[in-house]
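Same chain as my last thread, 217 residues:
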Amino acid sequence: MPDFESERNHLVDSLRRRGYVCSPAVDRAMRRVPREEFLPQEMRDDAYVDTPLPIGEGQTISAPHMVAIMAEQLDLKEGMKVLEIGAGSGYHAAVCAEIVGSDGHIYTIERIAELATFAEGNLKRTGYCKTVTVIFADGTRGLPEHAPYDRIFVAAGAPDIPAPLTEQLVDGGKLLVPVGGRYYQDLIRVQKTGEKLVKENLGGCVFVPLIGEYGYR
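reply #2:
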């Protein structure tokens, strides 16, 4: 039986040395969330290899270094309300939930019913269901009923920045979204300042395509 806790700490130590984990909040969150609990049973032994892994339905769980990059670049704080597009297995939402704490909340949208159920079960089993709400819907439309959000992030590659997401961001809020082709994207950070959107390219990344009304068909 693998010593998952030891493997998790070893991975986070490596992410720190490589500069992906910088802040105490992200370090603590990555050490606390059991990635193995968000994987299909047959993939659990590889939970702490720094690579994306298949979770079914043609989708993947992001590599730990990419989860760390996004958590750092979002600059999450306690008490924030966050929207995630692409729940997957629920792992990324759980890491964010650790940072925003019990006074914050993560809404995560998943377009594939089986994965929404999978994520919900994983979050319930690991104790994050009070801080994370999973919604089965088209994430490219956002979630207007709980807007505005302090932070929004997209865990899939979009052809462009979905307009509903910038509209649902608070003034001063930040959005992270991979933008580009179906197989390779640039991670774009958007800061909303009044009517202005300030965009910054954080470098190349690879995500599955964002499917929906404001993504790929």
